[in-house]
């Protein structure tokens, strides 16, 4: 099937910077696109909803001006995320703005709906839908999505529990369209590993939370830098859906991260605090197990350059090993 033209264009790195509730806005998205990776934000971050059109204007104009001023630069396209859940009462309004702006890539999460896919296809856009298992991947494609974002174990925010190797293999048995892999990818070697596993792109979230351009408070940025995988807590308490959060932020709200009560999907209201006073995402900070690879606070351009250097080194190392190990020789 190959990649649709919007995903087939040259990028600095095969990375889509994922949407981050409350944390990604125009500053972050512009910096991501202008560093040559696909940038994105949840439509819900533009508050009030009348701001969404202004944000899209700002990103489009800035990217166009940057491309004009830097003819050799790679400027990547951007994506808008729609939370397709009944608690999102802006869905229709935001879809109209997306269609008006002909947003090239729409990322749908927490629900797959044919009419959303049809609306995006009406102007030539594509839809990538995020899933946590092969069954949901089938449903997404049956309902008309163009590509799949496989959210494996260890991802920041709402996350699955399956191994990325298992998930990608099962999907690739029947789907040869655009496939993105996410879950604890915060190093250039891991970007290469995602491609080696069979994905077309790595989908990276937490690594961007600590960048200068992210709309995250300094304490959150620092906690990302200071934390490692064992400080990530998987709980459904805060939104009704299982997700990964920074242990330190749970403790700071007076909760015991080792004894959190269970919630359930009926409690789900994107951004709610479940049965706690703390507000998910605002007070309880989401992050994936890849935080151990994030050693310092950087600008987006520096982070992308670091990932790129690691990715190139990893590619060279692996190629060297393949050649040295004689695996290219026919079996005797
Ligand atoms: C703080 C935070 C907020 C997130 N908000 C959203 C969101 O609004 N919509 C969405 O589709 N995914 C959201 N995600 C999930 C990411 O899009 C992505 O799946 C995840 O960050 C990838 O794993 P990683 O963080 O380990 O790189 C969020 C993740 C984090 C850490």
Automatic annotation (TrEMBL):
<protein>
    <submittedName>
        <fullName>2-nitropropane dioxygenase</fullName>
    </submittedName>
</protein>
<keyword id="KW-0503">Monooxygenase</keyword>
<dbReference type="GO" id="GO:0018580">
    <property type="term" value="F:nitronate monooxygenase activity"/>
</dbReference>
<dbReference type="InterPro" id="IPR004136">
    <property type="entry name" value="NMO"/>
</dbReference>
<keyword id="KW-0223">Dioxygenase</keyword>
<keyword id="KW-0288">FMN</keyword>
<keyword id="KW-0285">Flavoprotein</keyword>
<dbReference type="InterPro" id="IPR013785">
    <property type="entry name" value="Aldolase_TIM"/>
</dbReference>
<dbReference type="GO" id="GO:0051213">
    <property type="term" value="F:dioxygenase activity"/>
</dbReference>
<comment type="similarity">
    <text>Belongs to the nitronate monooxygenase family. NMO class I subfamily.</text>
</comment>
<dbReference type="Pfam" id="PF03060">
    <property type="entry name" value="NMO"/>
</dbReference>
<keyword id="KW-0560">Oxidoreductase</keyword>
